Amino acid sequence: MARTQCTVCGKQALYRCKYCGDALCKEHLAPEMHWCVAPDKYKRAPEEEETAPMAKPTEKRQKKYDTNISGIFSHNYSYLLLFLISISFVLQLLIPRYTGQLILIPALVMERPWTLVTHIFLHSTRRFDHFLINMFVFFLFAPMLERKIGSSKFLLIFFLAGIFAGIGWSLTSANPVLGASGAICGILGALAVLMPKMKVYLFLLIPMELWMVVILFALFFDVLPIIMGSPDGIAHTAHLSGLLFGLLAGLRLRKT
């Protein structure tokens, strides 16, 4: 029988959270050590009721799970956004004028303010890596942030970071811009503040804490190219603007 692994560190899990369903080891049993969907309930419930030993799901729980399978996007807005962005990319490939109607053009932002939001759902159709890398990073980190702070606050950070990225780009460049990179940088910035010690494998090889990875990527992929004036076609100021918003949002959430 395969042993159940802790959702945080991968060690053998001994308990299962009754609120979020995470399998946990003893080290990450405390509510502040894992990204539970209901941390307020931990404060009100006695410790012995917070978790239960690992066990097979009862027939009643299994039935409830089966009846709710159709609502996969309910309170999983990160996956819904991933789906919508993917659909939007397909529409870009199929409809010639689709991108032109939704792309953010700094000179026209006052006439077309909706593009501060719609550009988030677009990606370059000439560079599939632009879409694939963004979606891979989003898939890894967006659900974590949503589980940590809740769906409503997650949506607020995602869209405001994307808008902030669009504004930052519009103030520094006249070229059109598109992509979810600024919004994703906002997600990473918020996570780096709320969960700074979360282990991340840089390039899938080097274990590092999340806050270190965020700083390294910001320096080498955005700050240095700006200083060197490298015309690489990447919206570096949009990335940094979204990241700045995410860091500020994370600090605000951490205080409250």
What topology emerges from the helices and strands here?
Blueprint: E1 15-17, E2 23-24, H1 39-44, H2 47-50, E3 51-53, H3 59-67, H4 77-94, H5 98-102, H6 115-118, H7 128-149, H8 151-170, H9 181-194, E4 199-202, E5 206-209, H10 210-228, H11 236-255
Antiparallel strand pairs: 1-2, 1-3, 4-5
The total beta strand count reads 5
Find the CATH topology of the largest domain.
Answer: Rhomboid-like fold
Mean pLDDT: 83
- By CATH, the architecture of the largest domain is named Up-down Bundle
Indicate the low-confidence ranges by residue numbers. Answer: 41-52, 55-70
What profile does the largest beta sheet have? Answer: 3 strands, antiparallel
CATH homology group of the largest domain: Rhomboid-like
| CATH domain class name of the largest domain | Mainly Alpha
The secondary structure category is mainly alpha
Q: Number of helical runs?
A: 11
Percent of residues in helices comes to 55-70%
| Beta-strand percentage range | 5-15%
